[in-house]
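Handout, page 2. Input:
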Amino acid sequence: GPLHDVYQAARTLEDELTGLLATAEGKPAPPPRSLVPTETPPVATTAQSALTTTPAVLSTPASVVATVAPYVPTAAPFVPTAPPVALPIVSVTRVAYGPCTTPAPGGLIKGWINCPGTVYLQINRPLPSGDLRVGFDWPSLGSFFYGTAHVGSTTGPVDVHVVNTFINACVTTYLSTVQVYDGAVSGPLVARQQLTLTTTCQ
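Output:
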């Protein structure tokens, strides 16, 4: 191109000046530089071009990336707790009595004496006094079954033996109320249970 022609003309002029200078000094003139082939700049090979190529950045398509929903903890439903049920200190389970087998003495009075029975209790907490007394009425006025027991700090089922000193008539079924007191002689009422009682008389 034009630049190459200018370059060649400059080299020719330089050769001529160099030749004149050598002649003046009595030296042989050097060969013209304009006849020396110009060097062709090296051309990068395919391998070198590959080394200088900017590496491609691989990206994952958006359709391949899984979308993960954020974790949201689920609150457990509130379940109200019922307050604990306070059991009575003593519960009456059942009553058994009779048969009454001992007639009143002398045959002058109709009825029976020393009629036995048993009151079955469930002690849920120790009694403060460690003793209890139990009674329930017979249908006749002033007639009742009565008994005491020393239970200490016992809890669980307890049987208390009771006695009615005199009943004047046989009643096979009747409604009565069993009462339990803390203390062998005196003390507060700790249980009261109405029951239908049945027995046989001989």
